[in-house]
Write a structure and sequence with these properties.
The chain is built from six helices and two strands; from the N terminus they run αβαααβαα.
C-alpha cells in the first residue's frame, strides 16, 4: 500500500470520528508513510511520533488513532502528531499550537 492509498483510509477514519485530516497534505502523506512503516515493522500502525515497544499489548494506546487523539483534538485542535485536526483548524479558523503535551508520556510518568 502506498501513502496515497493509506491517505484515503485515514480520511475515512477521520470522517467516522467527526475529525478532519490536517489540511497540509504533504504532512499527512509523511505521517501515512511512517504509519505504514510501523505496520510493516510491528504488525500494527502505531503513531510515528512515539516510540513503540513492539509489544502490541503495551503499544495499544498509541495505535493510530491513539486513545489520546479525541482529548487532544478537543483541547488543542489537533492530535499529538497533527494528523487529525478539528473542523475549526481544517477550515483555517483556528491555528493550533505547534506542539502539544504528550499525554502518553505523561501517563508513563504517573505509573
Amino acid at each position: 500500500m502506498t501513502p496515497e492509498e493509506y491517505y484515503n483510509i485515514l480520511e475515512k477514519v477521520a470522517e467516522r470520528k467527526g475529525w478532519h485530516l490536517n489540511p497540509d497534505k504533504e504532512l499527512v502523506l509523511e505521517l501515512a508513510e511512517g504509519l505504514l512503516k510501523n505496520k510493516e515493522r510491528y504488525g500494527y500502525a502505531n503513531c510515528p511520533c512515539r516510540p513503540a515497544t513492539g509489544d502490541v499489548k503495551k503499544d495499544k494506546p498509541i495505535i493510530c488513532p491513539c486513545v489520546y487523539a479525541e482529548d487532544d483534538i478537543n483541547e488543542y485542535g489537533r492530535c499529538y502528531c497533527a494528523l487529525y485536526v478539528s473542523k475549526e483548524v481544517a477550515e483555517g479558523r483556528v491555528k493550533p499550537p505547534a506542539a502539544i503535551p504528550d499525554r502518553h508520556f505523561e501517563k508513563y510518568l504517573e505509573d
